[in-house]
Specification:
By secondary structure, this protein is of the alpha/beta class. Helix content is 36%, strand content 14%. It folds into three domains: 226 residues, Alpha-Beta Complex (Amidase signature (AS) enzymes); 133 residues; 67 residues, no CATH class. Strand 10 and strand 11 form a beta hairpin. Helix 8 packs across helix 10 and helix 8 crosses helix 11. Bound molecules: glutamine. Glutamine (GLN) binds next to loops. It catalyses: L-glutamyl-tRNA(Gln) + L-glutamine + ATP + H2O = L-glutaminyl-tRNA(Gln) + L-glutamate + ADP + phosphate + H(+). Belongs to the amidase family. GatA subfamily.
């Protein structure tokens, strides 16, 4: 813990940790030492980790990287961060992210951009988003592991951009209680680590049924680490032909072929498959996620949490709401609230929101058909490119940024688990990752396949 705290203090340029909690960390590390001495050491005893700012942590500022939650210090601890604490993990502080987890580059944060420790010459690169601070902190050895959340790729894309491992578990595997909501039917917590083994250990600590989240699954949590045998003989790996969009880089294609060859050499059967509705996933996601966000974000009204605008004489409650929300939310969040409100409005509900829900069902069925035909896991790229430069994608057209999520949003819509594994470097020397998608609640098998690929 002390070594990590020193490393964090020397890494301000990465802007990964946005609230540091050194006293609390040392206190918890001492308690972990005592437990170790007493021979009562849980799985993550004394392991220093970082916590995404989206998790509510008791007595520690939790802002979701938003101005509207300025000064918000929760009275309660999220279930997942509590579970990690119970498993002995030591929180070093809170990590940077895109505001309310909306973004793919960590450039929408009220704290400013987080920076990827990987760079080309002096060009600053994005660590990805929204869990950009988590990925940067793990990649730069500021902590042994970090929490992330994934609504449409926010664990897997930053993992791929930083050469780290990130798993988005099955929807319902981890409790969402106390994690600030973005899109409730898609959000999932998950670990971001250096190795697949670490991810297995940390996921076990984070997972489990919770009475406080009615969507959390009442299923036993297996010992994921014990499932890492590396034996994948006879497993069927699907290669979806729709994940090869026009203009995809040759390097990613090569990496993908190499990944398939590696799994084949380990005894798996490689099978080309079709997930015909893949092309509709991105538009469906960018209707459903903003719709849910517009509803979830209605609670930030200047009364209950964080920031409240200064009012002028004569201002009433409506002016208070308007000014507070105008000042507190960033541009991307406002855009999503407007899009969400629009697609949910009476006149457009059927044309957009309802249609997107139907598309979501079709996407889910594509995966179900593949699994029913015997496929155990699906191998695909995690991202269409390696990490891009900060500022490079901030164009007038936000859709360009959304295109980054083309390979990741599909499985959130289907509720499936997915893991990003670092598998190589591109010609610029930057990490590239592949993604494995698994059957629901079979994270153990999925991690084992990832282990064979690592
Ligand atoms: N980049 C996607 C978005 O902006 C995904 C974010 C996430 O998974 N939290 O919505």
């Amino acid at each position: 813990t002390e070594a990590c705290l020193t490393a964090i203090d020397g890494a301000d340029a990465l802007n990964a940790f946005v609230h540091k909690t050194p006293e609390l960390a040392l206190e918890r590390a001492k308690a972990a030492d005592e437990r170790l001495k007493a021979g009562d050491a849980p799985a993550m005893c004394g392991l220093p980790i970082g916590m995404k700012d989206l998790y509510c942590t008791k007595g520690v500022a939790s802002q979701a990287a938003s101005g509207i939650l300025e000064g918000f210090v929760p009275e309660y601890e999220s279930t997942v961060s509590q579970k990690l604490q119970d498993a002995g993990a030591v929180m070093l502080g809170k990590l940077n992210m895109d505001e309310f987890a909306m973004g793919s580059s960590n450039e929408t944060s009220v704290y400013g951009d987080s920076v990827n420790p990987w760079k080309i010459d002096d060009r600053k690169l994005t660590p990805g988003g929204s869990s950009g601070g988590s990925a940067a902190a793990v990649a730069a050895d500021l902590c042994l592991a970090a929490t992330g959340t994934d609504t449409g790729g926010s664990i897997r894309q930053p993992a791929a951009f930083t050469g780290t491992v990130g798993i988005k578990p099955t929807y319902g595997r981890c409790s969402r209680w106390g994690i600030i909501a973005y899109a409730s039917s898609l959000d999932q917590a998950g670990p971001m680590t250096k190795t697949v083994r670490d991810a297995a250990i940390m996921l076990e600590a984070m997972a489990g049924h919770d009475m406080k989240d009615s969507t959390s699954a009442d299923l036993p949590v297996p010992n994921f680490e014990a499932m890492l045998t590396g034996d994948i003989r006879g497993k069927v790996i699907g290669i979806p032909k729709e994940y090869r969009p026009e203009g995809m880089s040759e390097e990613i294609k090569t990496l993908w072929d190499e990944g398939a060859a590696m799994l084949k050499a380990a005894g798996a059967e490689i099978r080309e498959i079709s997930l015909p509705h893949t092309k509709y996933a991105l538009p469906a996601y960018y209707v459903i996620a903003p719709a849910e966000a517009s509803s979830n974000l209605a609670r930030y009204d200047g009364v209950r949490y964080g920031h409240r605008a200064k009012l002028s004489a004569g201002d009433g409650i409506n002016e208070m709401y308007e000014k507070t929300r105008a000042e507190g939310f960033g541009d991307e969040v406002k855009r999503r609230i407007m899009v969400g409100t629009y697609v949910l409005s009476a006149g457009f509900y059927d044309a957009y929101y309802n249609k997107a829900r139907k598309v979501r069902t079709l996407i889910k069925r594509d995966f179900e058909d593949a699994f029913a035909a015997g496929v155990d896991a699906i191998l695909a790229p995690a991202t269409p490119t390696s990490a891009f430069g900060l500022g490079e994608m901030k164009s007038a057209d936000p859709v360009e940024m959304y295109l980054n999520d083309v390979f990741t949003v599909t499985l959130n819509l289907a509720g499936l688990p997915g893991v990003a594994v670092p598998t190589g470097l591109d010609s610029k020397g930057l990490p590239l990752g592949l993604q494995l998608i698994g059957r629901p609640f079979e994270e153990g098998d999925l991690l084992n396949t990832a282990y064979a690929l690592e």
